[in-house]
Amino acid sequence: MKFLYTAAACAALATPAFAGGHAASGDAAAGEDAFNRQCASCHISADADGNVLAGRNGRSGPNLYGIAGGTPGSGDFRYGSSLVEYGETGAVWTEENFVAYVMDPTGFLREALDDSRARAKMAFRVRSEEDAINLYAYLAQFGDM
Question: What's the structural domain count of the chain?
Answer without folding.
Answer: 1
